């Protein structure tokens, strides 16, 4: 039988047989180079042990130059080995050729066509990544992972959750694109298909290999790929510091808050800002309160105090409300409209998300009137916002959106009070309403110009000198506790609630440490004291919703006295004269009795309460608890008015009479 192993391809009569240049001898590993003496030329000489433990079968195949001859020999060798009980000849050959091809491409799998701007030379290991895309050999088979180049070029780690993302650079066409995607998506064969929506060529068949490629290249080059910290919120984070004053930090939150994030920056000159704002501070207590509130916001987390509102309230124009807010905003960033300062023209949900984004920084809102509906009622709840936690809401894409949390101060302004008589005591306790008529900033135009050109310095200085100094913070916390005790003491002249005392103490302590550490050497006047804040604090005895509802009812009865049968009306001779039904003007509401008890038809009474924002049940509870109800202190009973028995609420009006001067009401 002719030995075809040494025949040249030209001697074979197979037309169109493919020709391939034999690899250079130098490309073959030394251990598999053809033997110099006595090479095996016939596979029939191999034993089972040769196939299992020797490289001779592979060496024989390597020496064959013609691919066709090599394949024929491999087929017959495989049959011979199987006759001896060895069944892995083809697998051995596939493993060898795959290894050799990967080695021949080893110079291509580092830089590829990755642009120089990324400054990376990535070791892609067994993966071939070049201008033609990403490939890998599995045996003799070349598997196309991606038909265009794609690389991980940056790593991002969220300081809150520890979640990591990668910036992926790819070129599918004429230009390079980038996208930032969570590792949990990229490294999953199922989820990485989402890259197709961003322009990357990934299919159901290639997704598993692409996910594996990205994972291995990122791991192989872990120390080389640049890493950045990311955040979705401002404020203090244990182990990292205060955002945004952390180095190598990038914003990775809702793009809607990108401009607000960018506004928290520095501009101009710190000395210019400090010099001018010291003058604003010294001009009025109200401006001092607004500025102190801005600094106090970042202390609430460390003082374990609840969020609260400082509301600048003036019905007069030109009093400096907005300018005072600009000064407060310039502590942290750009105070221009649409930058750090927000307006009330938003939904309750948007306010929650903004408060959550700012986290520990103050939320500064202008123009309260924009937050009112056609009935003049607020579109948000003061009480809910000062709880510091948002509502759980569904996402459009499914699932529940992350619940926002915040610990900050809301600094607001408007032409009217933030809370009304119908608001509960909880809302009253969480608002310091600063009402004024006279200007609180001496030169509003000049001040606005200064803080637009110089901002962002004081906040960072306060964080560095106070918030990040453990000894200073320990002293500050002790001072805060003493101030709370002083505000709730018996010598105040008011019974100040715990929540109001905490809010006032936060303002006082902020003003003291701002004076000592931020404005040192700038001739700042005295810090906020009890006497400065006491006029703006509520007396706990006056803020009960039941007490305010009772006062409303008395006013309402007096306003509608002509709708009551009045036994308290005086005649010419000073005798009681009963007004009969014929004299009642409009609808009948009830009867004003001579014993300072007013009977109000129950349905009319409850309708009046509801119309003015009061819930009847807590009002009844307060009236009963304070002895303001007759008929054995029950809510209602049957009474005769004009000969008709109707169910009424019998309210003790005390010494407040609607008789002698009722005509003038």
List the helices and strands and how they pair.
Blueprint (H helix, E strand, L loop, with lengths): L47 H6 L2 H8 L3 H17 L5 H16 L23 E3 L2 E6 L2 E6 L3 E9 L5 E8 L4 E7 H4 L20 H14 L6 E5 L3 E3 L3 E3 L5 E3 L6 H6 L6 H14 L1 H12 L3 H4 L4 E6 L7 H10 L11 E2 L4 H11 L4 E4 L15 H4 L23 E6 L10 H5 L1 E5 L8 H10 L3 H11 L2 H18 L10 H20 L12 H4 L11 H15 L4 E3 L23 E3 L4 E5 H10 L4 H10 L11 E5 L2 E9 L13
Parallel strand pairs: 4-7, 7-10, 11-14, 11-15, 12-13, 13-14, 16-17
Antiparallel strand pairs: 1-2, 2-3, 4-5, 5-6, 8-9, 17-18, 18-20, 19-20
Can you walk through the features of this model?
With 665 residues, the protein is of the alpha/beta class. The chain folds into four domains: 4-104, no CATH class; 116-230, no CATH class; 262-536, no CATH class; 545-664, no CATH class. Helix content is 34%, strand content 15%. It is built from 22 helices and 20 strands. It has a five-stranded mixed sheet. Strands 12-13-14-11-15 form a five-stranded parallel sheet. A five-stranded mixed sheet has the order 16-17-18-20-19. The chain is elongated, with a radius of gyration of 41 Å.
């Amino acid at each position: 039988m002719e030995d075809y192993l040494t025949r040249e391809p030209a001697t074979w009569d197979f037309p169109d047989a493919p020709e391939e240049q034999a690899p250079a001898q130098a490309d073959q590993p030394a251990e598999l180079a053809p033997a110099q003496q006595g090479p095996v030329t016939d596979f029939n000489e191999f034993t089972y042990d040769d196939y299992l433990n020797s490289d001779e079968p592979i060496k024989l195949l390597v020496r064959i130059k013609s691919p066709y001859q090599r394949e024929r020999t491999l087929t017959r060798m495989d049959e011979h080995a199987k006759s001896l009980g060895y069944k892995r000849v083809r697998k051995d050959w596939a493993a060898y050729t795959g290894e050799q091809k990967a080695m021949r491409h080893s110079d291509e799998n580092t830089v590829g066509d990755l642009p120089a701007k990324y400054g990376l030379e990535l070791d892609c290991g067994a993966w071939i990544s070049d201008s033609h895309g990403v490939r890998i050999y599995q045996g003799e088979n070349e598997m196309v992972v991606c038909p265009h180049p794609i690389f991980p070029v940056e790593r991002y780690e969220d300081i809150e959750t520890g979640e990591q993302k990668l910036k992926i650079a790819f070129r599918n066409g004429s230009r390079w694109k980038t996208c930032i995607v969570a590792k949990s998506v990229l490294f999953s064969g199922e989820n990485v298909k989402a890259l197709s929506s961003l322009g990357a060529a990934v299919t159901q068949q290639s997704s598993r290999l692409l996910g594996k490629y990205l994972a291995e290249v990122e791991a192989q080059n872990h120390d080389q790929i640049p890493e950045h910290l990311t955040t979705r919120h401002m404020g203090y984070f244990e182990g990292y510091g205060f955002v945004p004053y952390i180095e190598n930090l990038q914003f990775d939150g809702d793009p809607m808050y990108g401009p607000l994030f960018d506004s928290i920056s520095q501009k101009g000159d710190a000395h210019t800002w400090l010099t001018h704002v010291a003058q604003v501070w010294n001009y009025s207590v109200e401006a001092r309160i607004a500025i102190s509130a801005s600094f106090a916001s970042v202390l609430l987390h460390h003082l374990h105090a609840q969020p609260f509102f400082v509301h600048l309230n003036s019905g007069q124009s030109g009093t400096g409300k907005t300018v005072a807010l600009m000064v407060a905003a310039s502590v942290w960033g750009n105070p221009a409209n649409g930058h750090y300062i927000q307006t009330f023209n938003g939904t309750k949900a948007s306010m929650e998300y903004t408060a959550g984004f700012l986290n520990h920084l103050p939320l500064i809102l202008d123009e309260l009137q924009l937050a009112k509906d056609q009935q003049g009622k607020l579109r948000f709840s003061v009480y809910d916002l000062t709880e510091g936690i948002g509502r759980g809401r569904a996402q459009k894409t499914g699932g529940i959106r992350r619940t926002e949390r915040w610990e900050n101060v809301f600094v607001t302004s408007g032409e009217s009070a933030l809370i009304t008589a119908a608001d509960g005591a909880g809302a009253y306790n969480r608002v310091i309403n600063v009402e004024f008529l006279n200007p609180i900033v001496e030169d509003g135009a000049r001040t606005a110009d200064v803080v637009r050109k110089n901002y962002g310095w004081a906040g960072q200085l306060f964080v560095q000198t106070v918030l990040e100094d453990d000894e200073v913070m320990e002293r500050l916390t002790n001072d805060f506790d003493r101030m709370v005790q002083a505000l709730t003491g018996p010598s105040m002249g008011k019974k100040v609630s715990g929540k109001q005392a905490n809010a006032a103490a936060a303002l006082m302590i902020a003003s003291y440490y701002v004076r000592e550490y931020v404005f040192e050497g700038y001739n700042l006047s005295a810090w906020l004291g009890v006497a400065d804040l006491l006029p703006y604090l509520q007396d706990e005895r006056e803020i009960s919703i039941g007490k305010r509802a009772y006062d409303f009812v008395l006013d309402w009865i007096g306003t509608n006295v002509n709708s009551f049968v009045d036994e308290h009306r005086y005649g010419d001779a000073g005798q009681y004269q009963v007004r009969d039904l014929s004299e009642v003007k409009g609808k009948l509401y009830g009867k004003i009795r001579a014993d300072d008890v007013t009977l109000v038809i129950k349905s009319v009474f409850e309708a009046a309460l509801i119309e003015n924002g009061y819930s009847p049940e807590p009002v009844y509870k307060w009236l009963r608890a304070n002895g303001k109800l007759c008929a054995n202190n029950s809510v209602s009973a049957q009474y005769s008015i004009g000969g008709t028995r109707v169910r009424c609420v019998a309210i003790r009006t005390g010494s407040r009479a609607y008789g002698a001067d009722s005509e003038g009401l």
